[in-house]
Structure formats: C-alpha cells, structure tokens
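Private note to self, pasted from the team thread so I don't lose it. Backbone tokens:
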C-alpha cells in the first residue's frame, strides 16, 4: 500500500502458508500439468492482513485498493459461492469461510503446458493461429486461460458443471475484497485467447470453441480503471477498513508492471535478465505469431505488448567468458573499442531454442552477408550485443511499436548496470536510455492504479495521477550517427533472420 510519498511493504513466504507444494505449485506426474491450491492463496491473504494488523497498520486510512495476480491462471467458484462471499463472518478467517467455495480445488497456473490439444482445437475453430492472434492478440498458448478452461471442462466435467463463475487470479483476489464476483479487466482478460482486443468484448467464435454459454461463467469484462465498488463489510469489521474504501479492478502482473514502470506512448522497457523481456506501449497493434498484445491497463484506448527472449544474460556471460576472458571490464572495453555497426558483422546467438524467433544455434555473417564460422573476440562481443538489441527492436516493430519524438528506453535487470551495454541499446533504438528499479513493480503499479482509478471518472490521466513519483535516471543517449548506421542494419538483420529460420535444425 502506498501514496506517492509513503509506502508500506509486507509479504508472506509461501512456506508459511502450505508445506505440500514446490514453490507454491503442484507439478503433476505428466510434468506438464501445474496447479496451485486456491485455498493457499486465500490463506496467504489472511496471514498478510493479520501481519499488517499486528504491525499497527491503520487500514482506516486506505481510500482505495487494487492488486495484481499471476496472468492466465483460473479459479472456479462452486455454485452458491456468491452468497457465501456476501455473508462472510468477520470473526473467522477467509480460508475457513471459503473452504467449500471452489469446484476445482487446484487451479491451473501459468506454468502449465498440458493443453496442446485444446490449443490446436481453438486455432482450428477460428481459422488458424494467425487469425486467433488477430482477434485476441496472441496465437494459442498452453498456459492461456481459454485453453485451460477447455481442458477442465473435458477432464473434470462434474466440477465444471458445478461451477458458478470462472475468475482469473486477479479478479478472484478482487472478489475477496469486494464480497462479490469481480469483473475481469480488459488488460488481464487479453491473456486468455478469448477477448477481442479491439472491441474489448468476448469473442463469440472463441467462446463457442471452448464451451457453450461460457460468457455466463466469465461475466462481462470491464475497463482496467473501473471502480468495482467498496470493500465488503467483512473487511470493515475485521480490519477497520473505511466503508468508503474503493476496490479498483485488479489486473495481471505484467500489465501492473507496465503501470509500475509508468510507460508512456512510444516508450519501451527492456528487462535484461536470465531471459530478456520487452514491454511496449503501442497505439496501433499488429499481433503476430510471436509475442502478445494486451489492452493497456492505464489507457483503455491504447495497447501494450510483451515479448520474451530466452537467450539473455546466460548467453552474454558465455561470450564474456569466451571472448573477454571472463571479465566484464574487458567485455565493456570491446564495446567501446569497436565501431557502431561492427564493420557490418552480424551475429545470432541462440544457445537454447529461442522463443522469438523460434531458432537455435550460433549464426555469424560478415559485411557481405556471407556466413562465417568465427569472428575476432572483440567483434564477437559487439555482434552479440548489437544482435540481441536489433532483435528486440525488430520484433517490437512487428507488433506495432514505432520510435517517435520523446521515445524513451527504460532498462532494468542485471545488465542495466553496464553503461557500455546501455550505450549500444541507446544507439540501436536511437533513443535515450533510462534506468529504473523494477523490484516490486507489479505491487507499485497496483498502488498507482488504485490512485488513478479513484480519479479516472473525472478525466484525470494516469500520468497526471502519478506525476509526483520519482523519475528514472538518464543513463545513455544515442550517438549522432546511430540512425544512419542501424536503420539499414535493421533491414539486413531481418533478412538474415529469415535465412537463419530456413536453416535445418540439427
């Protein structure tokens, strides 16, 4: 919980909630099915609020709340659960009161990859993966909620028939505070393979492919800025919340992170970690077979996109060890001492099967686009870093991203502490790079969204609502010749990537 000048952070370790999971999940015998006990999440909320109460937190001062949940997971409420939610006894813990309220005790979560058949069926029903992507912002993914619902309906028919409402993890959590079923918000709803991201309504063709009359179980989606109502009397009586405390629609963890980073039109955020993740703010989406386009959580007329690249810091560390003697100082020196554009040399470094694009192996090309077996150590270092960032820009632009006046690149993650890497990032995108601290960004974004949601009906923009928050720090500006170097190089990179994708996989 936070204001723009004060914050309060508290957490509950998974091990203190339930001991019979591995990091909060059950990995089933097939190694593909992954679930979490719904009551574990309820008990965690009990423990968290009790901990805050014992610490002297004054809940009466909270004027609004929102939150985030892991994307794609689904919760199945048993028939009659809505009445239970409306009549919660403030003398008892939530996990005790709701112990019989879920028709599916273990909820499918984002780590699940057991719905391959359901993905194929959904794509076939709508006209193929590209058509599904055009409608919902993504091709069919095993973890996406629509495919999980189809599996539950098929493998647990009695439980499905006894279901009164299906929530995302985010709207499930909001329901606990609201004392009623909370609507799914547009942004988190975009991660289901069910929402038409342009009309912001459920896609009938997608719903029909998953289950008949599914819209009745999902309820109508609402804008992410919606105030759903006030907290229920349970929270007022048990913890001392004000009756006027509003519940703003909860959303997914990735959309909430975008809010926490305060991305604006034209911005791109690059998280440089074990895998590299790219967050985009876009106006005109162009969904593709890779990546995801979601409705924007802070501006209902805009969109956000998400791209994940598996070969991130581990690949950078391998090339550091191979070509820079294991020294980051020598790695940085190689970037300083080689020219922008690397003399025309380009590299693709996919140590493991990449997500975007689906390719594997190391592929090196000289200035004449001839494939070569090796590069000098310094040239290899720059080829790696330039190649990674050219890939990030290429696939971002394919989803609808464009560099405009005022564009910022926000960098976070371990490699964001290396100023030479950030300089290459700035040059490739021809935009200034800023560094940000992304710890607890989804939590911070939820607090920002609560603040904005309470004022959104008055027309106040998200950025006006959070304008007093601290700004990111400028870390690098593009070289004057960056655009003339990397504009043509990006086109070459795209053509060479097509060649790589056509090569047989060994």
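Design output:
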């Amino acid at each position: 919980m936070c204001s723009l000048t004060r914050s309060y952070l508290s957490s509950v370790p998974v091990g203190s909630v339930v001991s019979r999971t591995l990091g909060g999940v059950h990995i089933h015998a097939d190694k593909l099915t992954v679930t979490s006990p719904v009551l574990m999440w309820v008990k965690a909320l009990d423990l968290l609020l009790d901990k805050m109460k014992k610490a002297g937190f004054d809940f009466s001062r909270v004027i609004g709340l929102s939150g985030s949940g892991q994307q794609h997971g689904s919760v199945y409420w048993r028939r009659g659960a809505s009445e239970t939610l409306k009549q919660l006894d403030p003398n008892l813990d939530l996990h005790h009161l709701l112990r019989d309220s879920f028709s599916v005790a273990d909820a499918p979560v984002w780590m699940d990859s057991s719905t391959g058949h359901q993905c194929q069926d959904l794509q076939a029903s709508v006209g193929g993966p590209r058509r599904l992507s055009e409608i919902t912002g993504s091709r069919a993914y095993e973890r996406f909620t629509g495919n999980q619902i189809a599996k539950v309906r098929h493998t647990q028919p009695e439980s499905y028939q006894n279901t009164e409402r299906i929530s995302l993890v985010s709207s499930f959590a909001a329901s606990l505070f609201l004392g009623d079923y909370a609507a799914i918000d547009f942004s988190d709803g975009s991660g289901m393979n069910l929402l038409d991201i342009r009309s912001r309504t459920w896609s009938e063709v997608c719903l029909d492919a998953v289950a008949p009359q599914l819209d009745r179980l999902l309820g109508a989606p609402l804008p992410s800025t919606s105030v759903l109502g006030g907290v229920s009397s349970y929270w007022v009586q048990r913890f001392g919340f004000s009756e006027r405390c509003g519940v703003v629609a909860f959303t997914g963890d990735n959309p909430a992170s975008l809010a926490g980073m305060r991305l604006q039109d034209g911005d791109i955020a690059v998280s440089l970690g074990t895998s590299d993740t790219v967050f985009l703010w876009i106006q005109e989406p162009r969904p593709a077979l890779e990546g995801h386009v979601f409705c924007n959580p802070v501006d209902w007329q805009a969109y956000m996109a998400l791209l994940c690249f598996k070969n991130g810091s581990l690949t950078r560390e391998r090339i550091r060890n191979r070509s820079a003697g294991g020294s980051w100082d020598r790695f940085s020196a190689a970037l300083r001492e080689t020219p922008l554009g690397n003399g025309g040399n380009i590299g693709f470094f996919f140590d493991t099967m990449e997500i975007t694009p689906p390719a594997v192996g190391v592929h090196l090309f000289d200035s004449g686009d001839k494939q070569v077996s090796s590069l000098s150590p310094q040239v290899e270092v720059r080829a790696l870093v330039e190649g990674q960032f050219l890939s990030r820009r290429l696939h971002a632009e394919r989803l609808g991203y464009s560099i405009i006046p005022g564009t910022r690149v926000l960098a976070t993650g371990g490699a964001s502490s290396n100023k030479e890497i950030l300089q290459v990032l700035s040059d490739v995108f021809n935009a200034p790079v800023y560094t940000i601290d992304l710890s607890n960004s989804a939590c911070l974004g939820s607090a920002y969204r609560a603040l904005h949601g309470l004022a959104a009906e008055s027309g106040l923009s998200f950025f006006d609502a959070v304008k007093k928050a601290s700004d990111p720090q400028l870390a690098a500006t593009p070289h004057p010749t960056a655009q003339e170097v990397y504009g043509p190089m990006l086109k070459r990179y795209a053509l060479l990537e097509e060649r790589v994708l056509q090569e047989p996989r060994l």
